[in-house]
Amino acid sequence: MLTIHVCDASPETAVLVDGALLAAVGPYEALAADHPRARVRRWPGILTPGLLNPYGPELLERAYHPDPREADRLGTEPIFGERALALLGANPSARGASARRGVQRLLAHGTVAVAGELRGRAALDAVRGAGLALAARPAALPGPASFSPVPLVLLPGLAAGSPARFAVFDVPDRAALVRDGAATCVATVVGGRLVYRGR
Fold first, then answer.
1. How many Cβ atoms are within 10 Å of 90's Cβ, its own excluded?
2. SS3 of 132, please?
3. Which InterPro entries does this one have (predicted)?
4. In this structure, are residues 24 and 34 in contact, taking their beta carbons and an 8 Å threshold?
5. What is the dihedral of CA 149, 170, 199, 74, to 10 degrees?
6. HEC profile for 68-109?
């Protein structure tokens, strides 16, 4: 089924998704006129190509993402350092479950690609299972490992025929996205699938 994704603050950058690919990119009015039977998903904010998070190993292999059932004991935020390594090594299935929860956090921040050399099968399986792209790490890292690194690394522009991989942020423009960060994400699409939807 064809789907048009359009945002309130950027109707000139709507996308037409056909399966796992972008069939067209352009103004909403033109896409809707050319494809009147397409399903329409309307979002607040702006539609972007999505983000590259350069901290794949740090966030998925060297951090422990607590299960909600562990919140009373471990909290809800990722745990780093020696404590994380101890938690990851305590149970063979802990690495895979933590990596999957870490990928969900990445998706909730508009991440559609990760960089850095992932060495563990658990992290690689979680990334591949979600359909995230693997990319080369930038020469200079923006700062400490974060789900919303500063500065944000946007992927190249959207084009017809490319993978349907993008994110929607509830901000009025890119300047606000840079200022407010990736926590403003309201939707992430990977491989044409809506893999994260906020609010």
1. 10
2. coil
3. Metal-dep_hydrolase_composite
4. yes
5. 20
6. HHHHHHHCCCCECHHHHHHHHHCCCCHHHHHHHHHHHHHHCC
- Residues in Cβ contact with 155 at an 8 Å cutoff, skipping those fewer than 6 apart: 49, 50, 51, 52, 112, 113, 165
Write down the pTM of the prediction.
0.94
Domain boundaries, the chain: 2-49+158-197, 52-135
Cβ distance 170 to 45 under 8 Å? Answer: yes
pLDDT, block means (10 residues), the chain with 199 residues: 96 97 98 98 97 96 93 92 86 88 98 95 96 90 87 92 98 96 97 93
Write the CATH number of the domain with boundaries 2-49+158-197: 2.30.40.10
Q: Are 50 and 113 in contact (CB under 8 A)?
A: yes
Encoding tokens for residue 88? 């990851």
Pick from 95, 92, 111, 115: nearest CA to 103: 111
Rg for the chain, CA atoms, rounded: 17
Terminal CA-CA length for the chain = 24
Specify the length of the chain in residues: 199
* Token pair belonging to 31: 């896409």
Distance from the Cα of residue 91 to its chain's centroid: 27
- The 3-state DSSP class for residue 103 equals helix
